[in-house]
Amino acid sequence: EAEGPLRERVQTAAESAAAKVVAARELEGGLLQADILQKTKEIRQQVALLPELEKRSVELYRQRLKERLADLLQAENIDESRIIMETALMADKLSVDEEIVRLQGHLVHFQEALQEETGIGKKLDFIVQEMNREANTIASKSVDMEMKTIAINLKNSIEKIREQVQNIE
Length: 169
Known about the structure:
Helix content is 86%, strand content 0%. By secondary structure, the protein is mostly helical.
């Protein structure tokens, strides 16, 4: 007979503890989501700077090429069409347009996945890996120091997100 009231008290205590655990996890999840969204916002801001820096990199390359050719040829008049051709070839190699577009797409996909209710940890982890791949490519193509710095900042922010994603189920 004493077992009934004891069982009820144990069940009530267990339900209360479970509710508190759920509430704590929901609070933690909300804080985690807010932190991740802030980091994705920072990444977007950094990515927005890249197109203008890319243009500057190509112009810088063109100027350096012209100076090197002048030194090599020791001539004042250099074939401008050759410089234009070389610059166009290098501009194509230095271009990070595709990486920017893919990174922006990954950010959109990431935010969409973050809104899903369950089982998003592995999905987010995969998207973060793809984001990191694009940041690595941007870093390897960068000749401008400011662009390299942005690429490093991107990688750092993405790594912080990756660490947070490890806590998501």
